[in-house]
Amino acid sequence: MTVEDEIEIMGQRLNDKIRNIFGRSLHIREVDAGSCNACEVEVNALSNPIYDIERFGLHIVASPRHADMLLVTGPVTRNMELALLKTYNATPSPKLVAAMGSCACNGGIFGDTYASCGGVDKIIPVDVYIPGCPPRPQAVIFGLMVALDKLEQKIRKKEV
Amino acid sequence: MNSIESIKKEFNTNVLEVSTSHNETYLTVKKELIVKMCDYIYHHLNLPIVCIFATDERKIDGSFKIHYVFSEVKDDAFIILRISIDEENPKYPSITNKIASANWYEREIQDMFGLVPQGHPDPRRLMNFEDWPAGVHPLRKDFDIKTKPPRVDGEYIYRRVEGEGVYEIPVGPVHAGVIEPGHFRFSVAGEPIINLEIRHFYTHKGVEKLFENISIDKAVFLAERISGDNSVAHAVTFCQAMEKIAGLNIPPRANHIRTILLELERIYNHIADIAGIATDVAFSFGAAHANKLKEDVLQLNERVTGSRLLRGMNTIGGVRRDIGGRKDEILLSLSIIQRDFRKLMEHLSSTPSLMDRIETTGRIYNDIAKGLHVVGPVGRASGIDRDMRRGHPYAAYKEFNFKVIVSKAGDVHARTIVRADEVCESVGLIEQALWSLPEGDLRVKVDKIPDGHALGICEAPRGETIYWIRTSGNKIERCKVRDPSFCNWLSIEYAVLDNIVPDFPIINKSLSLSYSGNDM
User: Contact A115/B145 with Cβ under 8 angstroms?
Assistant: First the structure.
């Protein structure tokens, strides 16, 4: 199966979920909390003509105030801790947080040091973890679907 | 007379000690004389300073050392001046007033080692933010990496520009696009920018300290994660320094494969930069095409190496996997990519709305570029004829023919053209490397790295990348990493002057700067 076919199948499933839960589209704000920029390469790839996630109702927005979800990369450096917290607080509820990449999941190779907090969940609550260094675009799309399932469960349980 | 002899003649008794290892000559000198000597080598012998770094050698002789690395391309040699600084009197004369490119290095050493450059024109903090307590310096040997110093009160003071109609625009650290974090403070009067101050190091992850705390076999993976889109260049530079220390000659086949990987990396980075420029002038058609081509290279990377960013291929002593079996596939894919890329470039250069935005925009004049030691394609677009693949040849570059592309205009257009031509040169290099791929082993086995120190250097897509490593007891004692962005960032403060704010993103993209590689 080619990459294009893979994306077509995953994208349609993603699109159905988004329509089901959000009505039309899911807005994501990407926050780099100290990544090495490999994750940014892959997030940017999501918008290229091969993946083109906008056609599945996924939109990367310019401000956390427009976002339903934060996609956070990097181990959260000491110098980015406050900026991440402010971004989280600026995002309207109900909101989702996805930790993208090994560093965001648990600090990765950078670990927990004087300069690194050792993972996004040390600073803000995380709904879904997308491992990989960096995760392939397919893995990111899969992770977003898991996040949407989680939100649906939360809605059913009336937690949000 | 070569440079070393000139220095000895000029400063005879003031050179306390001379030692040579590989192509590196270390001259120990008195710290009082450092300004004069650096000035002589820089202005008289015309050698650029490529790195300044400190080491904590208090365990050995009770002092800190600062190293000033000059590169002599003519003989593929390095001249390194070394001064010694006592713990009781941690001060040394600053050379920034004579050599502008020393600016950030001296501030970095001040934050990381607590050694104060006296007479520095801008002694503010650089890597440790103002909430970092005074007197705590992470790269000192008695600082434990797990320490979490408390946050203290403090405020970074920006240069203020005042006058009628002048106002400030603060941008970042969290940006509108999918890019890395950093702060930009513009002072503008109407649309034109009259001052820009950058405030970085938000992504400082303590990489140099980490190197000292992990095992050598893990260290290659850390090097790959210093600047993600330059993974191969960092890994190769790291491995070269280690191989120099261990005195290893790596197999020719591995050298050819490294060359191929380095050039694949350059191709996708350069295409990505051109895509970014098209995006930032809102030329979506061109951007979509360029992004598609970049994706084609990333998918080729994955088919050939298993990693879209070519990670996990390099190791000390050679490469981990063979790519020779994929020769035909690489050649075919690249020929299609090159054909489409040429078409795209023809299309871009015949689009007036794009050319209008990039010609004469974001000029970096040759004297500014030289003074700040701007490296890589950005430097070459400002008339600096310098390329490490030719100047300090490594991997298999000596065996191949390629042109070093230089332009004089120094604007966004020149940088775009330099990159576009370099993509074609890179395709040529890969073809040569594949056609002449020698048979043989992929790596030599390395059990233990002996004690020693060495420099590694490499031309990454962004420019020259330098590692200086000292090993002791099969562990890394000190690893200085100098990413090309560390040299190039300051040039943006000059490039944007008199340009309008909406052109800032294009200028930024055309300089292609890594935040993570800079901040580490």
Answer: no
Question: Contact B204/A79 with Cβ under 8 angstroms?
Answer: yes
What is the model's pTM?
0.94
Number of domains in chain A: 1
Residue A11 resides in a domain:
no
Flag if A32 and B229 touch (Cβ within 8 Å): no
Domain with CATH 3.30.460.80 in chain B: 3-118
Within 10 Å of residue B18's Cβ, how many Cβ atoms? Answer: 12
Shortest CB distance from A116 goes to which of B129, B205, B311?
Answer: B205
Q: For residue A136, which residues of chain B lie inside 8 Å, CB to CB?
A: 308
Partners of residue B292 in chain A, C-beta under 8 Å? 48-50
Comparing C-alpha atoms, which of B334, B454, B310, B311 is closest to residue B394?
B454
Structure tokens at B179: 């890019």
What is the fold of B207-519?
Cytochrome-c3 Hydrogenase; chain B (1.10.645)
B149 close contact with A: CB closer than 8 A: yes
Q: Which domain holds residue A108?
A: 25-156
User: How high is the ipTM of this complex?
Assistant: 0.91
Cα–Cα dist B414/B51, whole Å? 27
CATH number of the domain that residue A132 is part of: 3.40.50.12280
Q: Which residue has the tokens 């199966």?
A: A1
For residue A35, which of A82, A88, A104, A89 has the smallest C-alpha distance? A104
- CA angle at residue B143 from B139 to B144, to 5 degrees? 115
Q: Taking CA B81 as the corner, what is the angle to CA B467 and CA B6, rounded to the nearest 5 degrees?
A: 125
Best A36, A69, A78 member to test B by mutation, with max B CBs in 10 Å, is: A36
Task: Note whether residue A64 is domain-resident.
Answer: yes
Overall fold of domain B3-118: Beta Polymerase; domain 2 (3.30.460)
Phi-psi group of B201: left, alpha or beta (phi > 0 → left; psi -120 to 50 → alpha; rest → beta) = left
**Which residue pairs, CB below 8 angstroms and at least 24 apart, start in B472-478?**
B474/B216, B474/B448, B474/B449, B475/B212, B475/B215, B475/B216, B476/B211, B476/B212, B476/B214, B476/B216, B476/B219, B477/B212, B478/B55, B478/B56, B478/B208, B478/B211, B478/B212
> Can you give the pLDDT of all 160 residues of chain A as single tens digits?
788 888 888 888 888 888 777 777 889 999 999 999 999 999 999 999 999 988 888 899 999 999 999 999 999 999 999 999 999 999 998 889 999 999 999 999 999 999 999 999 999 999 999 999 999 999 999 998 888 888 888 778 876 6
B150 touching chain A per CB within 8 A:
no
Count of CB pairs separated by less than 8 Å, A with B: 136
For residue A95, tell me if it sits in a domain.
yes
Picking from B149, B222, B291, the nearest residue to A109 by CB comes out as B222
